[in-house]
């Protein structure tokens, strides 16, 4: 399928229950990734497997949307 994106899942972890700690991590992880290799997408799901599936699905949908926008006449 044209525009399909590949996603590597580097890390999955349980979200902290404390809202402040969760917010800190949501700010910290993208900063570290930006400095190192790219980007971070934070996905909340009921299980690690569901989170990975959701991340791949969202990346594929985004890739397809970008492909459509770039190939419009």
Detailed description of the structure:
This protein has 73 residues and is mainly alpha-helical. The chain has 2 helices and no strands. It has helices at 19-36, 48-71. The mean pLDDT is 80.
Keywords, separated by commas or semicolons:
73 residues, mainly alpha, 58% helix
The total beta strand count reads 0
Largest sheet: none
Rg: 15 Å
Low-confidence stretches: none
Shape: globular
Number of helices: 2
- Structural class designation: mainly alpha
Quick check: average pLDDT?
80
Beta-strand portion reads under 5%
Distance between the ends: 19 Å
Helix-residue proportion: 55-70%
Please provide the ordered H/E string of secondary-structure elements: HH
How do the strands and helices of this protein lay out in sequence?
Elements: H1 19-36, H2 48-71
Question: Short description, anyone?
Answer:
This protein has 73 residues and is mainly α. It is 58% helix and 0% strand. The longest helix is centred in the C-terminal third of the chain and has 24 residues.
């Amino acid at each position: 399928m044209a525009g399909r994106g590949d996603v590597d899942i580097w890390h999955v972890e349980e979200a902290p229950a404390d809202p402040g700690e969760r917010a800190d991590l949501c700010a910290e992880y993208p900063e570290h990734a930006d400095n190192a290799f790219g980007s971070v997408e934070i996905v909340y799901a009921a299980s690690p497997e569901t989170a990975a599936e959701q991340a791949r699905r969202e990346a594929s949908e985004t890739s397809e949307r970008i492909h459509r926008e770039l190939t419009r006449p």
